[in-house]
Amino acid sequence: MGVPRHPVHTECDHVFCDSCINAWLKNAGACPCCRSVLNSVDIESLKGPLFKVYSLIKVKCVFSCVGCPKVLTIQSREAHENWCPARLGKGIPRKKKCSEVAILLKSH
Fold this sequence. Notes:
Structural class: alpha+beta
Helix content: 25-40%
Radius of gyration: 16 Å
Order of helices and strands: EEHEHEEHHH
Number of helices: 5
Number of domains: 2
Shape: elongated
Strand content: 5-15%
Number of strands: 5
């Protein structure tokens, strides 16, 4: 599981990607972590102090597997990944091909 780009939290206090949890709930009707009964009205966007803390968590660039050494806050990650030299194939020696990159970009 990656870092949610559009985080939401449930009544049972778990954090998920908005599109992922909504897709899950169409089939399951329960929280994937604790199995509490859950539906889409039980989900809210992160806001206030919880969002502030979440946005300051540090993560590796999604292109770290192909050579990007950056560690960024979640808040600045998306802007960096749009112009990341590893994504563009410039300036960073590639370590190896990473199938996760393709999967992550397709799913979000």
